[in-house]
Amino acid sequence: MRHERTEPRSVWPECHGVRPLTPVSSPGAMVQRPAGQRSTGSEGVMTVRGSPTEGLDVQGHGTTDPGSPGLIDTHCHCLPGVDDGPEDLEEAMDLCRMLVAEGVHMVIATPHQLGRYDGGNTPAEIRQQVAQLNHALTQRGIRLDVLPGAEVRIDERIVSLLQHDRILTLGDLGAFVLLELPHETFLDIGPLLVALSKMGVRGVLAHTERSAFLAANPQFLMNWADARPIVQINASSLVGDLGHAVQKAAWALLDLPLEAIVASDAHHAQTRPPRLIQAMHMLDAKAPHVAQRVFRQVPWQIARTYGSGRRGTTPVPGGHSL
Ligand SMILES: [Fe+2]
User: Fold this and answer.
1) For residue 178, how far is its CA from the centre of ligand 1 (angstroms)?
2) 179 C-alpha to center of ligand 1: Å?
3) How remote is the CA of residue 66 from the centroid of ligand 1, in Å?
4) How far is the CA of 133 from the centre of ligand 1 (A)?
5) How far apart are CA 105 and CA 156, in angstroms?
6) What is the pLDDT of residues 63-97, one digit of tens each?
7) What is residue 304's predicted lDDT score, i.e. its pLDDT?
8) N or C, fewer C-beta in 10 Å, the chain?
9) How far apart are the C-alpha atoms of 218 and 256, rounded to whole Å?
10) What is the whole-number distance in angstroms between the Cα of residue 149 and the centre of ligand 1?
11) Could you report the per-residue pLDDT of 211-242, keeping only the tens digit for each?
12) How far does residue 223's CA lie from ligand 1's centre (Å)?
């Protein structure tokens, strides 16, 4: 159900837009470019550009400015037939075309792991499915690179499963893991975030605004600040697709002094579309530096970060290994 858009609350002061993002245990290593990944012409720490939509061709041809890095969507259910995302390859292609139309040139596929998908969607399966999707995109001339990842339901086994390559990190790079909290039941995941940080992994809190407790008590997140979680907010929440309360919570999260990113969490081109362009326009109008940070800089650094636990087994477009 779609609700009326409301005016956003205040967001971070501009000084939040220039903080460096580093993995827990390898500061300074975050800007290396994985072998085989396309050069963007802007190596090293990202610099603030003009409007977040500058250079985007929303007609479906990706970025028009060769110096523009485009967008990276760090949370998307774009693999066909593996979870509650697209049911088949053609639906996946429709979603991928829509991402490209919104200026996305790289997406991390994040199918659900654990929870009701426990026992399925293994890392080996996801890596293989990502390779197949990349092949299909190449065949159709769709300029979108897909990296493997997962949205991992909170589970007491996560640390052990991560150590044994049973769950995937974002981009399969071993530095950030996307964690899905229950919407209605609050779990204090502080100890998990600390345990992950000791492994050199930062927790990314999937659609934080959809946790009823955290939406009502955003300051509670500061109890976890020492483990340096990243607050992920859905673009659809920012634009109001999930109602006023979720929208209000999403904007309020941007006021916290925590690193944040906006991602699509898209599942389908029609029923759960990306909504990135709309959200980016809204935030750019309010706080362009924050828009740059949460839509471009932090997602880019996540996708390009080499963490201490990277496995180096995942093929990427171009035929190289990470
Ligand atoms: Fe998701």
Assistant:
1) 9
2) 10
3) 30
4) 18
5) 34
6) 333 335 689 999 999 999 999 999 999 999 999 99
7) 78
8) N
9) 8
10) 11
11) 999 999 999 999 999 999 999 999 999 999 99
12) 24
CA angle 268, 173, 68 (to 5 degrees): 65
- Centroid of chain to Cα 11: 20
Whole-number Å distance, alpha carbon 266 to ligand 1 midpoint, is: 7
Which residues of the chain, if any, have pLDDT below 70?
Answer: 1-69, 305-322
Q: How many angstroms is it from 263 CA to the middle of ligand 1?
A: 10
265 CA → ligand 1 middle, Å: 5
Q: What is the pLDDT of residues 113-124, one digit of tens each?
A: 999 999 999 999
What are the structure tokens assigned to 24, written together?
């827990």
- Of the candidates 158, 161, 126, the one whose C-alpha atom is nearest the C-alpha of residue 314 is 126
Structure tokens at 44: 């090293």
User: What torsion do the CA atoms of 37, 43, 46, 51 make, to the nearest 10 degrees?
Assistant: -80
pTM: 0.77
User: If you measure from the C-alpha of residue 112 to the centroid of ligand 1, how many angstroms do you get, rounded to a whole number?
Assistant: 7
